[in-house]
Amino acid sequence: MENNTIxxxxxxxxxxxxxxxxTMQKCKHIIDKNKSRYILNIKPTAPxxxxxxxxxxxxxxxxxxxxxxxxxxxxIAKFLNGRIKEHINLPNIYTIQNSNELAQELQQLNMGExxxxxxxxxxxxxxxxxxxxxxxxxxxxxDRNKICKDEKVQILQxxxxxMEQNYF
Length: 168
Fold this sequence. Notes:
6 helices, 7% strand, two-stranded antiparallel ribbon, mainly alpha
């Protein structure tokens, strides 16, 4: 195991697709039967990984870029994201749209001579997110917004399944 990776003996794509189909069938409160065929990826394939060389850094490390658009969980994850957004209005006060917006916000800061600015580079952000923490925080936000129990259970079932079906 190098870089926290293991090589899989078999391609799990068909198994993932079947798990998604079975879970979707149980989610009648959040998935309309007529829409389910648009949410299921009929012929999924394993995500493709591309490696881009960071020529500006020592030893030319790579930046892995993963294309998951054909993965079994891609469409259901997009659907679930929309459903969660319908119920949870998170305050996104620390997000910016582009570098121009960042520059404008930085100009408005009142910086004294003893202040310093730093930048942080988060290594492997998404693979290091705690899955249990994501489930717990989603549960808390769904409870705060008084989502009906059946719908909440189904959202959490799908979320858990999607997070478990991670190739990389």
